[in-house]
Amino acid sequence: MNPEITFTRLPLIEPKEILTHMSDPRVAEHMPLLTAKWDAAAVGEFVAIKEACWSRDGLGHWAILCDDNYVGWCGFQKEGDEWDYGLVLKPEFFGLGIRISRKAIKFAFADRRIPFVTFLLPPLRNNLGALTKFGAIFVGEIEFDGSTFLKFRLETA
């Protein structure tokens, strides 16, 4: 039986859950911009920034629940004229990434505000098959906040 995947807002998650998740060094391995130590203040700032996207753009990041248990966060953040998709899971749930992303991408296809989605991945990521299965094309390498990323684009309109 497949576990139920649902999305909810980040403020509904216990801050300690997010702190434990984002403090895991296995998560940081996949996030070159995650360089500061996380504490309660960092969690509060993170949730506030993500909620500000909802206020500003009407869309943002969700907390991901698997059978009502927090497993990570994902969603869309507007960067200029582009909607960037991000997904950060607890390591023990990395295997749910494709299933969760499929659900989020389905949302993007149904939302007229999103003509395309971008994905920024660190160059160390060598398993990019899921992106090509979704239909994303490689755009090139870009520099963002001092780190290099592989940029992909998926047309949704």
TrEMBL record:
InterPro entries: Acyl_CoA_acyltransferase, GNAT_dom. It comes from the Bacteria. Residues 18-117 form the N-acetyltransferase domain. Keywords: Acyltransferase, Transferase. Its EC number is 2.3.1.-. Pfam families: Acetyltransf_3. SUPFAM superfamilies: Acyl-CoA N-acyltransferases (Nat) (SSF55729). One of its GO terms (molecular function) is acyltransferase activity. This is GNAT family N-acetyltransferase. It comes from Sedimentitalea todarodis. The lineage of its organism: Bacteria, Pseudomonadati, Pseudomonadota, Alphaproteobacteria, Rhodobacterales.
